[in-house]
Design a protein that fits this description.
The chain is an alpha/beta fold and 276 residues long. It has twelve helices and eleven strands.
Length: 276
């Protein structure tokens, strides 16, 4: 059974989610709640959000193939499907070379992982891949419902849609800061982006999009930072988010940075008033 993700979702690291935030976002009309930062194989964090809500989809973006045993993930998927039918999307990815000691043959590892999910009867239409480059994008189109790229731009979304073709889900994540002072917003953005600029898969993808070593130096050029972290009023930010949808995304997954927990809700309410 396919899942209706809606046109707008919300992305946060798993440890930043909680029932209060999940319920508030469901009430605002967001379609999917995405759990990042390597949820565990038992998928308990997703289960908590599903139990707290009634209709919103909960997805992982992403379960790390090096850290979460595929057979266990398959068993957990079926538990969630029994408890909350049609409301869970399993996003899987390969993680980062810099953070994984056993990192080798990443593409083949993903293929093997999908094979195990097949053996565990996890439907193709209920799983997605964290895909950035053409090879994994093609794998996501062939073996899953689609792709959940992270740290991208509307240009990447356009290229990804061309690679995926029609009828395949594409859900990019986009960071935002609801702040009209550019220097304050960029300071928040650079602080958050610092870790990502040290990870080779993101750096490679940004260079594939035309950014240079100069763009990545000293916390990131203004052009790069402004592309990766939208800032301004809700209306101004909505224009940047809509650019992903116009470039071919099925849903845009918003990550509001600079606040935590329920303190995020006013910002998401402002964005919902414009987007939903």
């Amino acid at each position: 059974m396919a899942v209706d993700l809606g046109r707008v979702g919300v992305w946060h690291q798993t440890h930043k989610w909680g029932p209060e935030l999940a319920v508030g976002l469901e009430q605002l009309g967001y379609g999917t709640l995405w759990l990042g930062a390597s949820p565990t194989a038992d998928l308990r964090d997703a289960e908590v959000l599903l139990a707290a809500t009634s209709s919103v989809v909960v997805g992982t973006s992403i379960v790390n193939a090096w850290k979460a045993d595929a057979a266990t993930v398959a068993e957990s998927y079926h538990r969630l499907e029994e408890e909350s039918p049609g409301r869970f999307m399993l996003g899987v990815g390969i993680g980062h070379r810099e953070q994984t000691g056993e990192y080798k043959a990443p593409y083949e590892t993903l293929v093997d992982y999908l094979d195990t999910l097949d053996d565990g009867k996890v439907p193709m239409e209920r799983r997605m891949l964290a895909a950035l480059g053409p090879r994994v994008l093609k794998l996501s189109a062939a073996r899953t419902a689609g792709a959940v790229p992270y740290l991208t731009t509307p240009e990447h979304t356009r290229q990804a849609r061309s690679t995926l073709g029609d009828g395949v889900l594409l859900v990019p994540e986009q960071k935002v800061v609801l702040e009209t002072d550019k220097e304050i917003a960029r300071a928040v953005a650079r602080d958050y982006l610092a870790t990502y600029f040290k990870l080779s898969n993101y750096v490679t993808n940004l260079k594939r999009l035309g950014y240079t070593d100069d763009d990545l130096a000293d916390g990131g050029s203004d052009d790069l930072v402004d592309a990766l972290v939208l800032h301004g009023t809700a209306v101004e930010i909505a224009d940047g988010l809509t650019a992903h949808l116009e470039a071919g995304a099925d849903q845009i997954a918003i990550q509001q940075i600079g606040k935590e927990g329920p303190d995020l809700l006013p910002g998401y309410e402002a964005l919902a008033a414009v987007l939903l």
